[in-house]
Write a structure and sequence with these properties.
alpha/beta; TIM Barrel
């Protein structure tokens, strides 16, 4: 598996807890039983690495994986020879030979996809995506009957929720109803509705196969309640330099942060080129991201730049700063916390984890 640059050549360490990943899958599998629990490993397994994540999930008992592109499916097949692998994002004609060679199952989401697969694949399995409200990919419910008459071996019928993280959103009920209305048109196909957050909906729309992604990697599938999942990633960086400035002095590009007192600053070698969002900047009129230094939360000072971020460590005792590291994820700072401070979501934090980190896989 790719561990990035060696530790001595990197300015930050990303620790991935594969034991926590496996535990998260087991917890979700137990929750939805007797439905099968698959795993979404697109976007390089949400940034932690397909070659690391898939074997850990296989060992935990997972047998079915979902990816976005055929190239990801090829990588999964290399480490999971017997797994069932679905490719979510349509079926370009040029991808068909690869899909057949590596036994990947396309998720048919249009009449064009259906025609391409029916012509080329000679009844090899595929899934059908029914669009019940997202208006992104998928077949309209009114068109399912026509697709059902085509020479396709549809083994899975699926849909995708619009707002499953909001339990009381009426769209959830509407989508469940629309899906149920067309389910009888493909009676022999298994069903799949639920992403991570949908596993916690009161309607329990599990179908035969669920597709958790974000929750497996430690993201909170229930944003209005405590996170039931274990954290999977930890990111920390050594302090490169300490300096003291006087009250009134500015920090960072365009001088957007002003010291309100005599201030101790720590600079770390992580920036937006490493996936730390520029929008996590701390400026005079907005609190930005934080790091844990010597057990204390310390705010970012100034704009996040390409390779560097400055942290206000004034409240950390000087004797605890020697040899200290700054924890950007971990010790209470979650991917959701950092996402919120950067006006984005934890999904983006995970999937942008940088290639310059030295990666350590544990568990």
């Amino acid at each position: 598996m790719d561990q990035g640059p060696p530790a001595e050549r990197s300015q930050a360490v990303l620790t991935v807890d594969l034991g926590a990943l496996a535990d998260n899958w087991r917890a979700l599998a137990k929750r939805v039983a007797p439905a099968e629990c698959g795993a979404v490993v697109k976007a390089d397994a949400y940034g932690i690495g397909i070659e690391a994540a898939v074997p850990a999930l296989l060992a935990a008992g997972c047998k079915t994986f979902f990816v976005a592109h055929a190239s990801e499916g090829v990588r999964v097949r290399a480490v999971a020879p017997a797994a069932t692998i679905y490719v979510l994002n349509g079926l370009p004609a040029a991808a068909v030979p690869v899909m057949i060679e590596y036994r990947l199952r396309p998720v048919v989401g249009s009449h064009e996809d259906a025609q391409i697969w029916a012509k080329a694949a000679d009844r090899l399995p595929c899934a059908l995506h029914v669009d019940t409200g997202m208006n992104r990919l998928g077949i309209a419910p009114a068109d399912v009957a026509a697709i059902a008459q085509m020479p396709l071996a549809i083994d899975l019928m699926m849909t995708h929720f619009v707002s499953s993280e909001v339990a009381e959103d009426p769209t959830n009920f509407i989508q469940i109803t629309r899906f149920a209305d067309v389910r009888a048109l493909l009676p022999h196909a298994r069903t799949s509705l639920a992403n991570s957050s949908a596993l916690f909906l009161p309607q329990k729309p599990y179908g035969d196969l669920v597709r958790p992604g974000y929750a497996l990697y430690g993201g909170n599938p229930t944003p209005d309640a405590p996170n039931p999942m274990r954290a999977v990633v930890r990111l920390e960086a050594p302090i490169l330099q300490l300096r003291t400035i006087e009250g009134g002095e500015k920090v960072g590009y365009n001088a957007q942060w002003t010291a309100k007192r005599r201030t101790r600053l720590a600079t770390i070698g992580v920036g937006y080129a490493d996936g730390l969002p520029r929008a996590a900047m701390g400026i005079d009129d907005r609190i930005g991201g934080e790091a844990i230094v010597a057990g204390l939360r310390c705010p970012f000072a100034g704009r996040v730049s390409m390779d560097l971020t400055v942290i206000d460590v004034t409240d950390v005792p000087e004797d605890r700063l020697t040899g200290a590291t700054a924890v950007l994820l971990g010790d209470g700072i979650t991917v959701d916390d950092l996402g919120l401070r950067a006006a984005t979501i934890g999904y983006e934090i995970l999937t942008r984890l940088g290639a310059r980190y030295h990666r350590v896989y544990v568990g």
